[in-house]
Amino acid sequence: MIQVILWFFSGIGFLGGYVLRLGKAFFVSGAILSLQFVVIGALVLVRIAYLTTLVTIVLWIYNQMVSVFELINSTYTDTFLYLPISIMDSIGLIDALIFVFSSFTYIIISLLVLFISKFILNSVQSIADEYFKISVLIQLGVK
Prior knowledge:
This protein has helices spanning 2-9, 14-74, 82-90, 93-142. The chain has 143 residues and is mostly helical. The two termini are 32 Å apart.
């Protein structure tokens, strides 16, 4: 009688096999899947932080360049750079730099949008790969 009960609850018995499959499914859905979702969340947060930092740095550099051009145009009369700036202004170099900078701003913005689009596409592809891994783990846990 004890041998029958032990066989019934062992790994090769009916109830033991059912409990083993159920335990495996709970482990896959409880431990591994939650870890995969944490990885996806961390991936998204790191990508957003990287993209935000990159855009902030590019905008800061752009604003600093604009402020340098405004400083050159407005307050060079009372500084020690009066003579070199007035020479560059008389030959039209400063106006040419301002024109080139304003013309290339559109190209820089277009390249930034292209880089952001590529970055978002790679991020979505990484997230899709993680979701595929999760679906494979769910299918393995159900069997």
